[in-house]
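#struct-help
A.M.: can someone run this one for me? Single chain, 150 residues.
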Amino acid sequence: MSIWWSLHLRREAASVPLARRLLLGTMESAGVDPDVSYDLSIALSEACANAVEHGGDTALDGGSQAYRVTAYLDGETCRIEVADSGPGFGGTGRGSRPMSMEAESGRGLYLIQELADHVHIGNKPGQGGAVVSFDKILKWRKDASPLLAV
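D.P.: on it. Structure tokens below:
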């Protein structure tokens, strides 16, 4: 069995814990080991915080533009993607590569790289915006049966 969901969220700080709670609830329901769930929730929080901070300009009506979070749990892997409509990487306010924990900016991207097994950081092809996607191999709680294809 596979689980996937996608959210369109306003670029507001309050959206970050909402996405994190949904991910944690999904992971718990699926029987994922809490340590793996925690790592993914921190990585997701950092990616969402980047989208909120750098993901676009304020709309003409004064409201915030949206960003999208999509999560896939399929077999032994979880893939998360956060996409926004900002200037993309290399544009104003964003570097193209995470530096280190000591750098003034890019710490969130550095954390994502440390917590996930595979990370892709880039721009949306043919349109404005950045995409951060990351995968992690799942481990299961001892008392849970992993999601199996039916």
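A.M.: thanks! The chain has three helices and five strands.
D.P.: also worth noting: The longest helix spans residues 34-54.
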